[in-house]
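Minutes, project huddle
Topic: does the predicted pose make sense with 2-acetamido-2-deoxy-beta-D-glucopyranose bound?
PN asked that the exact inputs be recorded in the minutes so nobody has to dig through chat later. Recorded below.
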Amino acid sequence: MKNPMSPTLFSLVHALLLIIFSLFIHCASVQSDATLIEYICKKTPNYTLCVSFLYTYPESATADVKGLAVMMVRIVQAKAIMTLNKIKELLESSPELMLPLFYCAKKYNAILRADIPEAIEALDKGFYKFSKAGTDDAATEAKLCEQNFHGKSPLTYMNSVVHDTSAVASAIVQILL
Ligand SMILES: *[C@@H]1O[C@H](CO)[C@@H](O)[C@H](O)[C@H]1NC(C)=O
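Predicted holo structure (tokens), as shared on screen:
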């Protein structure tokens, strides 16, 4: 009687099935991670910003809630550094705005030297209340900077980004509380 399937063909089919199976598992896990980011971001005040910034980090695909919180705080940090650099540029180009710009420089130094390190260290140690306080303070500092220009702010966009990313980070930390 003829063998219905030669051993080589059998192992080929076997290998193919294994590949299909592992691809399936891979897709299923990517699917569930996308769902975690979307689930988390729906609990924040700015879903679009939350999802689009987190997706720029490849590590977000495998991160847990705490990991996503750390990433969001890092995003606040990056945006705050950009804003402080912009403030330094404006101090040279717009001396008439020196006073409100100095005020903002103080606020952004507080974000970068106190609020962000506090938020990250507290996340690391599991002191989520302190971490939330850090992100809330960062949102407040950005708002204070903006308000102090009394309507003629050259930093409106950057202040909103820092405020909104901080508020999103705060909401993610809130989930851990
Ligand atoms: C989300 O954040 C972006 C960037 O700061 C802002 O332009 C947009 O208006 C925000 N959306 C909401 C619903 O707050």
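Observations noted during the meeting:
- The chain has a mean pLDDT of 90.
- The chain has six helices and no strands.
No decisions taken; revisit at the next huddle.
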